[in-house]
Amino acid sequence: MPIDRENKIQTAFLKQVGDNIEAFLLLLDAMPDTAAYLKDRQGRIMFLNNRNLENCNVKEISDAIGKTSYDLFPETCAKDYADHDSEVMRTGTPIINMISFSPDLTTKFICTSRVPLYGKNKQVVGVAAIYRYVTDAKEIPEWFSNFSDVAAFINTRYAEQITIEDLVRLTRCSSSQFRRGFKKFFKMTPMDYILLTRINAAREMLDHSTRLIAAIAQAVG
Question: What is the pTM assigned to this prediction?
Fold first, then answer.
């Protein structure tokens, strides 16, 4: 999307939200441990604070304006984020302190809150959200623990040949229960999760090493 158009749609959106929005955005940028975003009714990104730029692997805010979650994340993750954003905008009801896995699908958890944004005409014009990484184990629901162990196993052994049976043994579930539960929590199948983990590892190696692509491909399985 051309930069001039990005600036125009962002400016128009911020005018709808209200006169104090600039001060609000400054506050969001001042929170180093909290990621934040604003989206319009179409789910297009209107603002990412500095922490969320890092989390989304975006260098400049101009690179994100007008894009959606589908442009930044795998489809299964993007759909989950978009669905919750849409729910808040459709119902006008905030979602506060929802615990979920982090966007990079590591074993970390995030706590997310979303609220609708109202324009001067009192109509919902978008959604605002903040999320932070959970550091207190007491905040994490007990039923997450089994799948956290599975995620940890995959994240440390993704280069190996991992089978469903390997993962089922880490839980107290049957194979069918495991598959259903895994897809419910991660929004993808176990094998898709393993593939995504390998892709993320390869991307990290490409960004921070001088290894050849063939060597990286072999290293991540």
Answer: 0.63
